[in-house]
Specification:
The protein is an alpha+beta fold and 219 residues long. It contains five helices and nine strands; from the N terminus they run ββααβββαβαβββα. Strands 1, 2, 3, 4, 5, 6, 7, 8 and 9 form a nine-stranded mixed beta sheet that branches. The structure holds coenzyme A (COA). The site of coenzyme A (COA) has 20 residues, from β5, α3 and α4.
């Protein structure tokens, strides 16, 4: 496999381990979370394979497993800004290397323990530093998402455009065939000094670069 993100070593955790997902069956177990309400996404086998193969090619699907090898949750990142629902960035954003957190889910029995998703997002923050990534962003429901506060705790903030928080309308077909429209917004975390300065100067974030921050690790 030429995707170097998949070369990362398994990370032992207090309740198991985190490693790249290299079996489609594991991926399928976690992605099926989105078939449940409030998402109710139809998610065909083709959709799931496309997402899984997208990570293999151009990103990373990271799984948190129990010690006995049962997958509890995943975080999927893509290494690009390209997506049909991409947020507004300055057109020169291409000079930066992003991580886009495309998917985040914990299977229901493992939620709310400050373990699965929190650990996965922390590992992604660290991976971004070691891979010389400039910023990380993700899309959430505008009305708030269970992942929002968790990401705010881990250094993410709202993405801005012209001084306000842009909200996007996304239409999708639910599992019962009904069409639904959802309002979305974005959270963002600068990683490198270059990323921080660019995002601040182009109005995507409100916090100016702070010398006390940990970015030196990355430079
Ligand atoms: C959002 C989600 C990924 C969080 O994963 P998680 O492993 O439960 O999160 P953690 O236990 O590490 O973090 C605890 C946080 O999750 C929230 N949380 C999510 N589900 C919870 C539950 N069932 N019980 C208690 N807290 C829950 C808490 O609000 C807490 O946040 P806080 O910082 O406000 O205290 C998970 O709830 C999920 O898979 N939801 C369905 C899919 C989804 O919403 N994905 C996000 C799309 S952007």
């Amino acid at each position: 496999m030429s995707n170097q993100l998949y070369d990362m070593k398994l990370i032992p955790m207090p309740y198991g381990y985190i490693k790249p997902i290299d079996k489609f069956e594991d991926f399928e177990k976690v992605i099926d979370v989105f078939k449940e309400p409030p998402f109710s996404e139809p998610l065909s086998l083709k959709d799931k394979l496309e997402e899984y193969n997208g990570y293999l090619k151009n990103g990373l699907a990271l799984g948190y497993y129990t010690a006995s090898g049962e997958i509890m949750g995943y975080a999927g990142i893509m290494q690009e800004v390209e997506d049909i629902h991409k947020p507004f960035f300055n057109p020169n954003i291409g000079i930066l290397n992003p991580f886009y957190i495309y998917g985040l889910a914990t299977r229901s029995g493992y939620r709310g323990k400050y373990m699965v998703c929190s650990s996965l997002v922390k590992v992604i923050n660290d991976l971004a530093i070691t891979n010389k990534i400039d910023f990380i962003y993700l899309r959430i429901s505008a009305a708030g998402s269970k992942s929002e506060h968790l990401c705010l705790r881990l250094g993410y903030d709202n993405l801005y455009q012209n001084g306000s928080i842009p909200v996007q309308s996304c239409s999708f077909v639910r599992i019962d065939g009904k069409m639904e429209t959802d309002e979305r917004r974005f959270l963002i975390k600068p990683i490198s000094q270059k990323g921080h300065i660019f995002l601040f100067e182009t109005g995507s974030i409100k916090q100016p670069y702070d010398k006390i921050a940990v970015y030196e690790k990355n430079e």
